[in-house]
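Appendix C: a fully annotated inverse folding record. The material below is reproduced so that readers can follow the format used throughout the book. The structure is listed first as tokens, followed by the designed sequence.
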């Protein structure tokens, strides 16, 4: 058996084209161009790269993107003051705080300062609480991208047994909630889960979000399962990042699988653009 590939790059390309058309419609009808403002504290190389990718994606979709850079030694008050000014700027429709911020800062408190109507990354406390109740205006981009990717490929979720390996606030828990909302039976696994491979083998849908390079092997996977690898890990001596799933062995067992790179990552950015467009559309209603 050889897996079919869930091609996030191609899917995201289609979504970005759809967004670009809607951006042009919004501009023509109301003179509004969706504007995403990114807050980047410090010069972490990965964060700089990610923000650059998001900025270029915005521009290719006809959207406005601005990056607000602060030095790594910025105080809590300085970061919160910037957030407050972006909240008040009517030209800004969405605000992204690039994660992670320097360790001396209180990241949850910073995210708590985001105006919910502009939290297009969906990771502020209000947005996460609304996700729990099923009323979120903006859903976390990576979990949303996972569901959208499965939908675009016509993969059923209702009635399936889903296992999520990882319980982070911005990925593991939200994707579990989204799967639950779509009527899957969901198990969340973590570092204290006993006999994790056996639990993983029960999954019709296996989501890897544990930030451990190639931890999940092919023999952890139920034959025919859908495997979503949301991991991106740097491994010394490897030319490219690797996922949380050992792709070579897993692809011989799964029915569908996301590659790394080219799977979940492009969908995350596409959903960020989608949420920003939504914020701009809501601003004229």
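Designed amino acids, in order:
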């Amino acid at each position: 058996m050889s897996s079919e590939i869930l091609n996030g790059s191609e899917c995201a390309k289609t979504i970005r084209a759809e967004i670009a058309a809607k951006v042009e419609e919004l501009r023509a009808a109301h003179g509004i161009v969706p504007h995403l403002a990114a807050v980047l504290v410090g010069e972490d190389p990965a964060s700089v790269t990610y923000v650059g990718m998001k900025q270029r994606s915005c521009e290719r979709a006809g959207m406005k993107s601005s990056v607000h850079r602060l030095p790594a030694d910025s105080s809590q008050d300085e970061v919160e003051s910037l957030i407050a000014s972006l909240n008040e700027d009517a030209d800004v429709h969405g605000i992204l705080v690039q994660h992670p911020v320097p360790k001396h800062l209180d990241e949850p408190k910073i995210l708590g300062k985001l105006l919910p109507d502009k939290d297009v990354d969906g990771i502020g406390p209000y947005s996460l609480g609304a996700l729990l109740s099923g009323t979120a205006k903006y859903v976390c981009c990576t979990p949303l991208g996972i569901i959208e990717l499965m939908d675009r490929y016509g993969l059923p979720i209702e009635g399936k047994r889903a296992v999520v390996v990882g319980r982070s606030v911005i990925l593991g828990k939200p994707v579990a909630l989204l799967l639950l909302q779509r009527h899957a039976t969901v198990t969340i696994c973590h570092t204290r889960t006993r006999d994790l491979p056996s639990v993983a083998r029960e999954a019709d849908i296996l989501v890897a979000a544990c930030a451990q390079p190639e931890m999940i092997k092919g023999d952890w996977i139920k034959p025919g399962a859908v495997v979503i690898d949301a991991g991106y890990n740097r491994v010394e001596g490897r030319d490219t990042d690797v996922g949380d799933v050992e792709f070579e062995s897993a692809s011989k067992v799964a029915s569908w699988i996301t590659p790394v790179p080219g799977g979940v990552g492009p969908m995350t950015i596409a959903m960020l653009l989608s949420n920003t467009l939504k914020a701009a559309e809501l601003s004229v209603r």
